Every structure is written in structure tokens, then in C-alpha cells.
Amino acid sequence: MLQLAEHYDLDTSALSDREIANELYLRVDKVPVSLALAQAANESAWGTSRFARQGNNIFGQWCYEKGCGLVPRRRPSGATHEVKKFDSIQESVNAYINNINTHPSYGYLRELRARMRDQNRPLDSLGLAVGLGSYSQRGDNYVDEVQNLIMQNQLTERDNG
């Protein structure tokens, strides 16, 4: 269990075994295909962005060490972030799933997902998208964009395949 906790970036130092198990229950789960596809389409401009083409980054993930990625052309003065560069699209997907399953900003999404599981309901990407308000500086507008992409492109059809 401790290896799994380490993989999912869980600090276990002050947690009981029960608390570790409860937190892992929230983190060790899948992200619906429709949600990932909508976010990838949105973040990469359907795979045409410079970050997707030159850095295999289809989810717009940032990094903060000089040289870790591509410098955004319109990066604000004084900002130091870069858009992370990946060796492959698969590496970008893996990092995205890890980000959703571990970053504190997506705790609400993980709680929503756990509730769906507890109620034996299929994962609802439109409902889970509500937990992505922190993914973009656009906040609720970003959530709306992702939900619209899911609906307009009937992406939920991909969830059970």
C-alpha cells in the first residue's frame, strides 16, 4: 500500500492505514476517455498547437524548471513557467492522468468520481468536468468549453469501448 501511496504522491507520514486507504480510493481510478479527449482537444487546439506539435503536450501542462519545456510566446513578464515537453503523446497522457489523480486542485473531481462509484453509477464526464475549474485560468468558462466539446462531439460514446 505504501508503494501505491508513493506512486500517487500521497504523503503518508501523518496518516493512519485507514486514512491512506481512503485517500487511495479517491486517487486510484480512471479518467473517462471522453473527458480526456475533450481536454486534449481544448488544450491543444485539436492537436495543432505549437506545444502539441513540438512538445507532444496535448494537455497544456506546465513545468517550472528552466529548459523543461517550451516557453509560451505570450508568457507574462516575470513569469517563469514553461509548457512541459514530452518524449511522446503517451507520456503526455500518463502525466495528465497522474495530474488529475494526484494534484490537490482536482480533489473535488476525485470526490465526485468516488461518489459515482459508491452509487454504482457509470462515470459521468459532464459531471466530473465540474471539478476542473482550476485546470485553466478561465475557470467556469473552461468547464463549459470542456462540457460543450463532450456534448457536441458525442465523446461519451468513447467511454465504454
Describe the structure concisely:
The chain is mainly alpha-helical and 161 residues long. The chain folds into two domains: 30 residues, no CATH class; 128 residues, Lysozyme.
Written description of the protein model:
The chain has 161 residues and is mainly alpha-helical. The protein has two domains: 30 residues, no CATH class; 128 residues, Lysozyme. Helices cover 48% and strands 4% of the residues. Strands 1-3-2 form a three-stranded antiparallel sheet. It starts with a helix and ends in a 9-residue tail after the last helix.
CATH class of the largest domain reads: Mainly Alpha
**Weakly predicted, low-confidence segments:** none
- Specify the structural class: mainly alpha
Tell the overall outline. Answer: globular
How many domains? The number is: 2
What's the tally of helices?
Answer: 8
Q: Taking all residues together, what is the mean pLDDT?
A: 93
Q: Which strand-content bin applies to the residues? A: under 5%
Largest sheet: 3 strands, antiparallel
Write down the CATH topology of the largest domain: Lysozyme
* Fraction of residues in helix: 40-55%
This entry's quaternary arrangement is: single chain
Please give the alpha-carbon distance between the first and last residues. 30 Å
Main-sheet strand order equals: 1-3-2
The counted number of beta strands is: 3
Roughly how many Å is the radius of gyration? 16 Å
SSE inventory with pairings:
Blueprint: H1 2-7, H2 17-27, H3 33-44, H4 50-55, E1 62-63, E2 69-70, E3 82-84, H5 89-102, H6 107-118, H7 125-128, H8 140-152
Antiparallel strand pairs: 1-3, 2-3
